[in-house]
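Journal club prep — side note

Before the paper discussion, L.F. wants everyone to see what a predicted structure for a comparable chain looks like in token form. Sequence:
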Amino acid sequence: MIQDIRRQYNGKFTQEAYDQFFRSLWEHFHQPIEFKVCETPVFVPEWLRNLLIQAGEEVIDTLVQPGFKEATEASIPDHLRVPGEDDHTTFLAIDFGICKVGDEILPQLIEMQGFASLYGHQHAMARGYRRFFDIPGHMSHLFSLEDLEYEDLLRRTLLGDHKAENVILLDIEPNKQKTWVDFWDTKFMTGIEPVCITELHRSGNDLWYERDGQKINVHRIYDRLIFDELEARKDLRYDWNKTEPVNVEWVSHPNWFFRISKYTMPMLRSRFVPETHFVHELPAIPDDLENYVLKPLFSFAGAGVKFDVQRDDISSLEHPEHFILQKKVQYEPVIQTPDVPAKFEVRMMYIWEKDSPRPRLVINLVRLSKGVMIGVNFNKNKDWVGGSVGFFE
């Protein structure tokens, strides 16, 4: 988006440098990354940086309002409510598509989550781009932080007052997750062990797991486990369910996954937020459904989203209160690549420290696409697409 920098980057790009960069992201872990890492970062100009920050702050204004927890109580399914909830989420991710709105390029809210994202991998990826490509020194993937300051903040956030050996990153079969590299980048920075829920054992209200024949007590959990996946895995056997009270601290607490989500979007009013309604609150089904997307509230990674919405899709819903109808946005292809321009969206990633009144913007994630939508299924056999990071003026 900054033409001089883009022209220089594209002109100097070589497949050999990309292959070395890509391999550097995972070779010390001895397991290839499965997802597509883009050939380029995005160079974000100051005017768009300012709009993205403003858009994020306007979303956060709603999250910090008195009564937000009361307003989102119904977002948490009763059988998935976890005890011991704290005052606010620790991690916040807000996804904005870079879109054409009238004659303007504006960020438009796509998704949001009170759940951790790739806080380890995005930092490692940005450092990798700098190592193998010519990234201007006045641009950063971080916001008001140097590399070591960011690493220290993440370490303090995850460990709290505990030793690293008593803090775990929790997921299902961490080695088999597509995002496994983030888990190991996080371990490299913080010392936190990735642990499968099937490895946890319960003694009274205490949790522990075993490594190399040694019993290790768990005092704090960095939660990366999605309930959707846990409920779908009928083959798993485990001693403890997340909804059972135990003597652990959470970062972030699982209830915030539901509270800060698609459920929150109808509450937002901003030029950066597309018109969004709970389906059961619609006064009437819109006549121009081709301009809307139907999204289930309780799903992850785009599962169940319907882009070609028909009236029957809405009228036949058994639980319309579990869906939102959102106005479509038009991503603008603004990233010049060797063939056709690419679209992109930016995930603004925040850390909300315990005694802070608001979350702090720290790092970002970018995804590029040349398909109809962002995502792997729309970008098969395409180059200069996939996961990336933004370097901001």
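L.F.'s comment for the group: The CA atoms of residues 153 and 251 lie 14 Å apart. Keep this in mind when we get to the figures.
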